[in-house]
Amino acid sequence: MIRMIAAISVALIWTALSVLPASAADKVVLMLNWYVYGEHAPFYYGKAKGIYAAEGIDLEIQEGRGSAATTQAVAAKTANFGYVDVPTMMRAAVKGAPIVATGVLLQTSPMSAMGFVEKNIKKPEDIKGKTVAITPADSMTQIWPLFLKKTGLKESDFQTVAGDGQTKLNAVINGQADLLLGYVMDQSMKIKDATGKDVNAIKFADYGINMVCSGVVANTDFVKANADLVKRFMSATTKAVEAAEKDPKGAAQSILDANPKGGKIETLTQGFELTIPLYRTPETKGKRPFQVTDQNMTDTVNLMVEYGGLDAKAKDNPKAFYTKDYLPQGGS
């Protein structure tokens, strides 16, 4: 009788445990640098494929309104993580904003000068005699003088027209400018969406301008207080990037599945395919995403101090801007 009662008790306990709800996933808000475009595909793909859920994360993806605004939101803990231009984040951090990059994804700069294929602008020499559309004070325009120096061009070799981001696009689309300064996977796709025409891009990185670009950032206090969550988020994001690399069209489709007005499948796919080569440098070839080198970050800080308006004290400790402590180790 005692054994029977014990057996029944054990059975009841297991039955009760089986109907208890699973522990709730951690709600995480990721704010992007801008309205959605192809570069953002891995986040949507990771969510759609359950990669974040497998790490106990309920991910909400919010569009942004510029890297500076997203950096401010993360510093103020309005968002848990941000996906931003890391040099932009550096400007805020060196002024005291409590923010750090927990993973640098784009280790090669997407900055480019681009124009319609029919314009036949393929190399710096082809820019001579042309009109270039710029946005004053943006990151590309700040680095533009270095590109000119590296390629032997002078400002007298071409004309410029200035305006905000949309004005710059319109100038090329309407023929008021021959090319613009933009990101190879962003503005080029916007131009193609608007006109159906392909674009040639002259990438700054091909001429020795070695800078990082986009990465994941978080509030420093949040990171310290939520180390396990940060590790799980970076593990999931690393896996999401690796999975998306193998399925660019599927990754692009996940954007449209979440946001039907997020673009066109052709240019979202092409934009993401143009992003993938930016994930690694020759030094990180074969490594998992986000494994940026210390030298790459130091070079970026030095260039930003000289050309990008970053406070010179940033050179005292480039490692203060990023950490690799929360990245997964080993192979994919």
From TrEMBL:
Signal peptide segment: 1-24
Domain annotation SsuA/THI5-like: ranges: 39-251
Keywords: Signal
GO BP term (any one): thiamine biosynthetic process
Pfam families recorded: NMT1
Protein name (Swiss-Prot/TrEMBL): Nitrate ABC transporter substrate-binding protein
